[in-house]
Design brief:
The complex is a heterodimer of chains A (426) and B (305). Chain A is of the alpha+beta class and 426 residues long. Chain A has 19 helices and 12 strands. Chain A is 47% helix and 16% strand. In chain A, a hairpin with a 5-residue loop joins β8 and β9. Chain A is globular, with a radius of gyration of 23 Å. Chain A starts with a helix and ends with a helix. Classes of the chains: A alpha+beta (426), B mainly alpha (305).
Chain lengths: 426, 305
Amino acid sequence: MKFKTKALLTAGLMTAASLSASIAHAVDLTMYYPVAVGGPVTKVIDDMVQSFQKENPDIKVEAVYAGNYTDTMTKAMTAMKGGQPPQLSVLFSTDLFTLMDEKAIVPVDEIPGADKDWLNGFYPAFMENGRVDGKTWSIPFQRSTIVLYYNKEAFREAGLDPEKPPTTWAEMAEMSKKLVKKDASGNVTRWGVEIPSTGYGYWMLQALAIENGQKLMNEAGNQVSFNAPKTVEALQYWVDLSAKESVMPKGAVEWGTLRTDFLEGKTAMMWHTTGNLTAVKEGAKFDFGVAMLPAKERRGSPTGGGNFYVFKSASPEQQQAAVKFIRWMTAPERAADWSIKTGYVAVTPAAYETDVMKNYVKDFPQATVARDQLEHAVAELSVHDNGRIYKILNDAVQAAVTGTQTPQEALDSAQKQSERVLSRYK
Amino acid sequence: MVSAVMNAAEPNAVRRKAWLTTVNAWLLLLPAMVLLAAFTHYPILATLYHSFFSLSRGGEASFVGLENYAYMLEDDVFRQVLRNNIVFALATVPTSIALALLMAVWVDKKMAGRSFLRLAFFTPTVLPMIAVANIWLFFYTPDYGLLDQFLKSLGFSGHNWLGDPSTVMSCLAVMVVWKEAGFFMIFYLAALQTIPPELKEAADVEGASRWYFFRRVTLPLLMPTTLFISINALINSFKLVDQLVIMTKGGPNNASSLLLYYIYEVAFTFQDTAFAATLTVTLIAILAGVALTKFVYLDRRIHYQ
């Protein structure tokens, strides 16, 4: 009986499939994508997909908003295990090892239509996270670096030069002290600086570690250095900003509400992804500046954000259609448009050569900071079992900023836990 | 003679009838049994089975025996979420029951505005947990939140309620008590109305005080309801997960993570289905233990009318 039902169902589905195929000959693609920044990003994506379909009537793309990066990865993996994977997805560039371990994706450079010229057109820093064993597994899309946003009016008010944002850790701490504002009863009404510790705490810690001259992982993605002295020092600096210098609020600083804090003038500076730039620009009622992150031993930021992946289970036609779609989405004029509408770094130098981008940058030079910072940027933390390692490091960051553990204790514990997880991949 | 034949036939007929009744009973049970087997018993057994295997990433899982359980016992996060869950249950179950009883006794009285009060107490219950979480998220938000605004007007400084590991659990407990108490109140209200008024009249004649009557008559008569509610509340406290997704994601540093949320995280964020199965088996064992205690032990000690 079971078999019969199955056979009937299959027959039904096949009839339905052949019917729809005979009508349109269209290739259907489902794409999951995340949103991690402010602004009407889903609408921007929908509009892009619409105009792609207008130019390519034989390809139908269903773009599914799937939450933040973690949620999107969760949905994609769950869908895959349930036998209904999407054909392509925008996922963390750093989910690569996990996706490879799950045998979920195909190298993009092996799909017809993805030629070398195109692949070499992207910024090398953005390609770093997508290349393993000489193959290109993913294509940069919504990529970012962390930048320092600062309120120029607050700088003026505190007697600081609004054209001179802090360039070193020491300077940032000093300036922050001057920027803190208190009301009559001694309560802080404006903080000097805020670095978000929820959501992407590991990312911020990686920035601090890079600036201190410490890389967090090896290239094979199976070794981390979370409790190296320089990483501990980096986390200590972060913790001290609230515990010792009292220029950052105590406890965890929310990734999601930080932009609002900055726009409401509750903090004079914030570390955040450049992906939020357009949302800040639209929301700010004051003059604001964007700067590269301050340096300790060197300048630096990890790259961040999402890449396109093509799933293995997609049929050859779907894979080719997916490449066509990705090429369209990352073409210079679209990349420029996308960057202008969000703040993400356009993924190719060619995008910055387009007229529309040149005009935009002329009036709004803040838009080039994240790109210029690329020369100091380092590949984002990417290891096997990435979701788990991120959680471990995020927990350590939160334990430290809330004062539950010292940076040394927290990172020792994170190192121990990570080694246990990663031992499987050695 | 005739009667002897009839007597001989009778046991047969009775046996036949008994047999038919049995078949009938099983047939009536069958649909429910099939559903139970498919959606409860099979998943439990499958989960148990998977908990003995390693994590498979795109390949075959291998049998590892009790390794996952050994790992679980050493897992700091597991120990913490279990501790969190126990603390959470101890904080929410007695409080919400006491509050429910108090509210039920209050709105059971004949007074003006009774329906309005009942409605007010019951409202949190009908709200979806996600909506409740969002409302309270607004209360707790540092600086902008209602709580901080209120404290500030009194001259206190604000506090990062959900970002501080020492306050986050209490904040969640308060919210859950607020949500659950109204639901339990309904059960108490129903139970209070089944208590015959003659008892009260008799007590009045005997000159018993109101407190004495409540303690010696009402409360014992409410015990079956209390038992029912407390088991439900306990199980609920292990089932609660929605508010964590909205409010804290288990943070900071797992301070507010509960067992079920941890299972979700392990299964879907880390894609470690084997370990998630292990944790699920543990959760099922805990809940089965609670249910068994009720059926085997507590039920006998409670006086039913």
